[in-house]
């Protein structure tokens, strides 16, 4: 397991989110976000700084909602955990980082948005304690898979999570 650091970024999507489904059926959206600080030059004009690009992964319902709601160029805010991993390729050791998103939303400083709640799904009583579509906490976490621990509360009807009845 790698180091995880809580982060929050504001930036723009440089491409449409890529939605895919793993072997277990879990939705995974990949996002690429450019964060670019603006600064005021001595002459009073605003200039863009050097952009920093972040790879972001969203899972489950968040992934599906991101793919259905956002597109290239949209300003977004992302909160989640920065995840590092190391791997070997062609005999050389490499490091990679990504943000595993817990929350993704449009940045409303630059526009407006409308919200539509996703309809609840009726779930039978045979759903495991960790929720539908969520990985078993005992399963190893690979780079392209959902985190072993769910970052968001499971959406199971009739289950109390953090004091809220779902």
Automatic annotation (TrEMBL):
DNA-binding recorded as keyword: yes
PROSITE patterns, per the entry: SSB
Lineage: superkingdom: Bacteria
Keyword Transcription: no
Keywords: DNA-binding
Classification via InterPro entries: NA-bd_OB-fold, Primosome_PriB/ssb, ssDNA-bd
Residue ranges of the TM segments: none
One example GO MF annotation: DNA binding
HAMAP family: SSB
Subunit note: Homotetramer.
Protein name, entry field: Single-stranded DNA-binding protein
Lineage of source species: Bacteria, Bacillati, Actinomycetota, Actinomycetes, Micrococcales
């Amino acid at each position: 397991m790698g180091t995880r650091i809580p982060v929050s970024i504001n930036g723009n999507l440089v491409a449409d989110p890529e939605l895919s489904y793993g072997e277990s059926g879990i939705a995974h959206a990949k996002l690429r976000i450019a964060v670019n600080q603006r600064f005021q030059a001595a002459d009073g004009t605003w200039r863009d700084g050097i952009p920093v690009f972040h790879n972001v992964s969203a899972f489950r319902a968040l992934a599906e909602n991101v793919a259905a709601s956002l597109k290239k160029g949209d300003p977004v805010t992302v909160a989640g955990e920065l995840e590092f991993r190391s791997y070997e390729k062609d005999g050389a050791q490499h490091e990679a980082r990504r943000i595993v998103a817990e929350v993704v939303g449009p940045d409303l400083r630059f526009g407006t948005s409308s919200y539509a709640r996703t309809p609840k799904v009726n779930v039978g009583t045979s759903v495991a304690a960790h929720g539908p579509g969520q990985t078993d906490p005992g399963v190893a976490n690979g780079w392209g898979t959902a985190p072993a621990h769910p970052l968001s509360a499971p959406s199971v009807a009739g289950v109390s999570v953090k004091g809220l009845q779902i």
